[in-house]
Amino acid sequence: xxxxxxxxxxxxxxxxxxxxxxxxxxxxxxxxxxxxxxxxxxxxxxxxxxxxxxxxxxxxxxxxxxxxxxxxxxxxxxxxxxxxxxxxxxxxxxxxxxxxxxxxxxxxxxxxxxxxxxxxxxxxxxxxxxxxxxxxxxxxxxxxxxxxxxxxxxxxxxxxxxxxxxxxxxxxxxxxxxxxxxxxxxxxxxxxxxxxxxxxxxxxxxxxxxxxxxxxxxxxxxxxxxxxxxxxxxxxxxxxxxxxxxxxxxxxxxxxxxxxxxxxxxxxxxxxxxxxxxxxxxxxxxxxxxxxxxxxxxxxxxxxxxxxxxxxxxxxxxxxxxxxxxxxxxxxxxxxxxxxxxxxxxxxxxxxxxxxxxxxxxxxxxxxxxxxxxxxxxxxxxxxxxxxxxxxxxxxxxxxxxxxxxxxxxxxxxxxxxxxxxxxxxxxxxxxxxxxxxxxxxxxxxxxxxxxxxxxxxxxxxxxxxxxxxxxxxxxxxxxxxxxxxxxxxxxxxxxxxxxxxxxxxxxxxxxxxxxxxxxxxxxxxxxxxx
Length: 531
Hints:
Blueprint: H1 5-8, H2 21-32, E1 39-44, H3 50-62, H4 76-83, E2 89-93, H5 100-110, E3 120-125, H6 132-143, E4 149-155, H7 163-166, E5 170-174, H8 179-193, E6 196-197, H9 199-209, H10 213-227, E7 230-231, H11 233-240, H12 245-256, H13 260-272, H14 277-296, H15 308-319, H16 323-341, H17 346-359, H18 367-385, H19 387-392, H20 412-421, E8 423-424, H21 428-438, H22 440-445, E9 450-454, E10 457-461, H23 466-471, H24 474-488, E11 493-496, H25 504-518
Helix pairs in contact: 5-6, 8-9, 9-10, 9-11, 10-11, 12-13, 12-14, 13-17, 14-15, 14-16, 16-17, 21-24
């Protein structure tokens, strides 16, 4: 009977385990110094070597002729554990044996001395699947096991284990294996199998496996069945159901160049070739993630697995867009992928998402952003149409404290042009809320104020002199500019809005005093001076 590659090439010694050197070195040192723990916990993502290391450890603690912390692989114990004839090493699937009675049976068996080995070893796979009652039944045995018993617990979801179990085990974390290490191992396996594999194809297999050696070997097994003697990138893409690499770049160009028709036609062509739309969506997410890395990380090349020519093309695409659009696109694609998995028509969802990203513009790719902008515009309209309400919220003017140094403001000759081009800033209420996150007092100083955008300036207008006192401080101006950039994504200079007639401020204040008097609020006329 044919043996699949991931079983045929499963490591038999710690030295053969790929990408987990910290774990294997520690285990070998413990075995060499005879510092063997009674309970081990191996945790990590799938296909990273947890079960493999469990079996090697079970052989190493019982080997009749250990070699530098590794099992010899030749003695009767090692051979008996490999072929399953020795019953003192027990593998238990916790997914199907997760009840209290199963653990009680295990406890009873653990009391018997081993028949052919030094230690009776229990390997409990997917231990997080045990019930609460089963965990409680296992606690005492884990804390004070018989001297001839070793427990090895393996799990992909360590967060589901009770703290009482975690504290009784020696924990080892298995990390995702680097793509280069997986590609090197695949090349070695192909050499043993008499098959030629291109380096780019091995890297593509490693990327699809996402750090899992078992997944990579399983996919390689299918590629060998298709290609027989030579495996290239096209073979891997056909077997994995991936779109052609050029199609992903072409779709991305359609998005960046706002070409809806070509994007929809490309999706249709891929659909006719039986490409899975959910998988296509995943590939686009990973592609835009790579573009994001190019835009935001200095040495992105080390983090992206692809050929040099593809990386150069990726860099060109990254230069055509901005980080905000990239993040919006990734979010839109992830949302579409989630809907596809819930049962939506995958082709229609893919087409709708691409058209939506293109038509709504680079800064508004998500419906959430449109809703957010509409909310800000509504706030701005309310402020402009309900001026008396906003005036009532302005703090009471205080007495002048004398001369204050001028803040950043445009020159007089430029102010007329800036005033003519000024438009209300709809994001201003949100900017004030952002300021209040780091200082409610500073944010309160801007309550009731208004802002206008004119060219590269944000012009602040307020009857309350407190906000201008704050803006005269360099540190506060920097924080204000940071808040503006965080909300709008743009950098502006700050200035004070001045009216054509300098007496307008006095008139506005007089109107405020009159309105307060008519509302029955006591007012001190002595303080009615221009601040």
